[in-house]
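Hello Y.,

Per our agreement to keep a running log of every chain we model this quarter, I'm adding this entry. I've kept the format consistent with earlier entries: sequence first, then predicted structure.
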Amino acid sequence: MHLRKRTAELLEPRRYGDRPSRILNLLLILLISLNVVAIILESVGSIYRHYEHAFSYFETFSVAVFTIEYLARVWSCVDLERASDSSPILGRLRYMLSPIALIDLIAILPFYLSLYVSIDLRFLRVLRFCAFSN
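Predicted structure for the entry above:
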């Protein structure tokens, strides 16, 4: 099976319900949920000060996973039926402008922006939880 098509199938659990797809998506939901818990715990000053490095490592790990997922979705979206009527570039652009893709981008972008701008937008990671629950 073509790698890009299989990637699209794995990332679309509602369409393809195979076991690896369900496991992958359950792991993503678990990671999103753990991020919500981390955000809540980070809001408690004493906990944050004591585990600041652990929160930082967890955020970096999470953003790396979510970035890989986002890029995999952009790469493989052209193999979904809804994107088959256009060129690969237009199909990817259409996907990137979809509400779910924009939410994913908004959830990971603050991490990369914080490398250049001093602003704390980590709470935006919660948006992934809202998007994934739909």
